[in-house]
Amino acid sequence: MSDETGTSPETRAGGGDAGPRPEPLRFYGTSWVDHTDGYAARRAATALGAVAAAAVACLVLRFAYQGLQIAGTGSFVTVLVVGMFAVCSALAFGNTWQSYERRPDPDRQASQRGLLTIGFVGSLLAYACRSFLEAPGEKLARAEYDKARAEHDRTRSRRTGNPAKKKRGK
After folding, report:
1. Can you give the pTM of this predicted structure?
2. Digit-coded pLDDT (tens) for 124-169
3. How many Å apart are CA 127 and CA 135, to the nearest integer?
């Protein structure tokens, strides 16, 4: 079995069963489980990084807006483009925020890829806001990890030993 399936090195090496391993999160690894290894500093850095990236993205969009003004496309096209970015950013924010609470549907995600790409500023802001609360995706990963851990503990507690070594009455 591989690391992706959650098998520990001890189990693969023939040692004891260590149970399920937590899913590593981007920029955090598995430090989200017990909030060690600079967890708070990582949260602050990723939040500030996402806010800085959103600010740079808004600056780039400002240049695009100025390009529309220089091109003289008219107010209808300008309003249409600004509205498109605003709506797509709002939808991307909501979609990204929801993806931290439950696993997104892959088909729906694929169909919205273009919309989410246009609204990248909203995704960055959702990441920044979530970083102020917790590691993005921590709530979902913790719920799945706790469920897997409880299931593992439940199945391990039912086993009382090797049934082949059971003493038989004569």
Report:
1. 0.75
2. 999 999 998 888 888 888 888 889 888 888 887 766 667 677 677 6
3. 9
Phi/psi of residue 25, nearest 5 degrees:
-100, 150
Residues 6+ apart with CB under 8 A from 19: 8, 148, 149, 152, 153, 156
Rg over CA atoms, the chain: 24
Q: Taking the CB of residue 137, how many other CB atoms lie within 10 A of it?
A: 19
Q: Which residues of 29-57 are buried (b: 16+ CB within 10 A; e: fewer)?
A: eebbbeeeeebeebbeebbeebbebbeeb
Q: Which residues pair with 25 in a beta bridge?
A: 29
What's the token pair of residue 135?
Answer: 């590691």
Both structure tokens of 8: 């520990």
